[in-house]
């Protein structure tokens, strides 16, 4: 898939995210729109994961630590053929398996996540197991910027460097807004690259809403032999829908009918 | 020193902790997918020899219990048989959300090993006591909870847990326990989820778990010798799922039931047994012996047991009181 095709995918994914959130009248809109280009590149260019190989010990592993942006993941997994996309019309409905966080009830999901600060530790264990097995399995997670305040992440940062897990890559969806306010006001993260480098990680910055930059960055993995890789993906919350971009209320805001139509036109625009 | 739970007539066995470590080592030698994960706890977990003999099968995470359980989850998801070993107090409090979400909810078959459980750490104080673990874990779906009483149960529990494809929490202390607590004619067997009747009687029943079973047997012996009272003693090693059938069978004798545990009287074995009795219309006289809802008295494990009546003397008195 070339860059142009990936860009078209991102547009289509954005519209589907909005479609299913609008239908469910629930979802994490802003974050799903900021994270989607990362998931697009992961599933269409990086991960060795498909419905056919999902039970194989040789496939790659993606665990979404930032579980609340599950709508983005659902849309991508449906596109990859893990389940019929129409299933998403039941999102968040009574007795639907398509709940508001990743769940193993859905094919394609590795673990149930949603509590923040869990995904990276699990990835560390999986990456270590792959090393022990001398397998080529690579392990990826996407973290949210708000969840970087969870202490468990920093336990895992220490572990990954100690065990030289260069088959592990963590991507930060750094849209710089969390539910209360900007990260900088809630609990400042900076200087993040220096902190992570001091913890023994190889760190790169990227425009996390630019698929070409993302492809090039993933192509460079591992950034340094013997070190886990961390991608600080600078993103925009609500990306692609101008009235949602960087606006706090769209953290889990649901568009009205009028706003929904406006958003679709904006994405096409 | 208060009355210690030693003076074991059949010869003192090992600490259940040591039996755990040697059993795990033999399992790991036979199966390269068996892993121990420790949080700077290989010394207190008696796993130093394991680490020396099988260095590729032990993973150290440092003093980071949340990461301990997360890493154990990741290993288990990659088809490893993982034993996450940490003091029960830290494992089941600091890492409770990882247990709830990563292990139980995500259904990863991690074996959580709570060492030096209950008040094993004695005078180190309440930071190091785990008197809440049955209560919190009972309320979490998809986990088996086991507290073996003696060396026999410990070895069997570890072997059976290793073969289970589901989450298990096992907890035990570090004091020497008998090799096998048993005063029945037929040798008893161990099966997860089935209580073990270690002494049969007709006047009352002690249903106990973990290291509280042994003082129950001592009390039963004293009751027989000095008061001509015949007590049944059950090791209810599996607290969840609870052996409801055995509890109702014991209740049908219409004699008093005393539960005994090294845990808060809230939310543990006693309340679990009481729930079974009440919901099945059983009106046996009933008493829960455990740690009351107060700041725990300071002292050794034996002194704390004695203080709260988890002792030969205390349980004898509880039996006499309930029989009136």
Automatic annotation (TrEMBL), chain B:
Gene3D superfamilies: 3.40.50.920, 3.40.50.970. SUPFAM superfamilies: Thiamin diphosphate-binding fold (THDP-binding), TK C-terminal domain-like. Pfam families: Transket_pyr, Transketolase_C. InterPro entries: PDH/Transketolase, THDP-binding, Transketo_C/PFOR_II, Transketolase-like_Pyr-bd, Transketolase_C. Residues 14-179 form the Transketolase-like pyrimidine-binding domain. This is Transketolase C-terminal domain-containing protein. It comes from Flectobacillus longus.
């Amino acid at each position: 898939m070339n860059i142009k095709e990936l860009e078209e995918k991102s547009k289509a994914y954005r519209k589907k995210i909005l479609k299913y959130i609008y239908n469910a009248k629930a979802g994490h809109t802003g974050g799903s729109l900021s994270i989607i280009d990362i998931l697009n590149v992961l599933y269409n260019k990086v991960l060795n994961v498909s419905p056919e190989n999902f039970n194989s010990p040789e496939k790659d592993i993606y665990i979404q630590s930032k579980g609340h942006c599950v709508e983005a993941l659902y849309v991508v997994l449906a596109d990859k053929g893990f389940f019929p996309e129409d299933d998403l019309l039941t999102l968040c409905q009574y007795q639907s398996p398509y709940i508001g966080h990743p769940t193993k009830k859905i094919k394609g999901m590795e673990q149930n996540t949603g509590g923040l600060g869990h995904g990276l530790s699990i990835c560390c264990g999986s990456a270590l197991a792959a090393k022990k097995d001398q397998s080529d399995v690579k392990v990826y997670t996407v973290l949210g910027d708000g969840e970087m305040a969870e202490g468990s992440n920093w336990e895992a940062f220490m572990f990954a460097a100690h065990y030289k897990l260069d088959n592990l890559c963590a991507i930060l969806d750094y849209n710089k807004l969390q539910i209360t306010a900007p990260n900088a006001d809630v609990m400042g993260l900076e200087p993040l690259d220096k902190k992570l480098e001091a913890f023994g990680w190889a760190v790169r910055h990227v425009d996390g809403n630019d698929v070409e930059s993302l492809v090039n960055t993933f192509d460079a993995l591992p950034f340094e032999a013997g070190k886990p890789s961390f991608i600080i993906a600078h993103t925009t919350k609500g990306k692609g829908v101008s009235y949602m971009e960087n606006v706090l209320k769209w953290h889990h805001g649901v568009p009205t009918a009028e706003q929904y139509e406006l958003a679709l036109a904006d994405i096409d625009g | 020193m208060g009355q210690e739970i030693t003076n074991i007539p059949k010869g003192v066995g090992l600490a259940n902790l040591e039996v755990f470590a040697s059993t795990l080592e033999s399992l790991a030698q036979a199966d390269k997918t068996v892993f121990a994960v420790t949080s700077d706890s290989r010394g207190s977990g008696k796993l130093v020899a394991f680490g020396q003999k099988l260095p590729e099968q032990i993973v150290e995470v440092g003093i980071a219990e949340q990461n301990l359980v997360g890493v154990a989850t990741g290993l288990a998801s990659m088809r490893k048989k993982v034993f996450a070993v940490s003091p029960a107090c830290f494992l089941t409090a600091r890492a409770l959300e990882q247990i709830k979400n990563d292990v139980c909810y995500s259904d990863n078959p991690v074996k959580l090993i709570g060492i030096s459980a209950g008040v094993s750490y004695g005078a180190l104080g309440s930071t190091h006591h785990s008197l809440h673990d049955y209560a919190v874990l009972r309320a979490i779906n998809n986990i088996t909870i086991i507290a073996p009483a003696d060396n026999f149960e410990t070895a069997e529990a570890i072997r059976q847990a290793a073969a289970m494809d589901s989450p298990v929490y096992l907890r035990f202390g570090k004091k020497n326990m008998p090799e096998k607590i048993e005063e029945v004619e037929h040798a008893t067997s161990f099966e997860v989820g089935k209580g073990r009747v270690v002494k049969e009687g007709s006047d009352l029943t002690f249903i106990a778990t973990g290291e509280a079973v042994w003082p129950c047997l001592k009390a039963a012996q004293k009751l027989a010798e000095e008061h001509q009272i015949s007590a049944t003693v059950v090791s209810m090693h599996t607290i969840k799922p609870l052996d409801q059938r055995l509890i109702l069978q014991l209740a049908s004798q219409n004699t008093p039931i005393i539960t005994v545990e090294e845990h808060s009287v809230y939310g543990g074995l006693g309340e679990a047994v009481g729930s079974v009795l009440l919901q099945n219309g059983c009106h046996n006289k009933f008493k829960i012996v455990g740690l009351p809802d107060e700041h725990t008295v300071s002292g050794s494990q034996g002194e704390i047991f004695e203080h709260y009546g988890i002792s030969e003397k205390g349980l004898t008195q509880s039996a006499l009181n309930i029989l009136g």
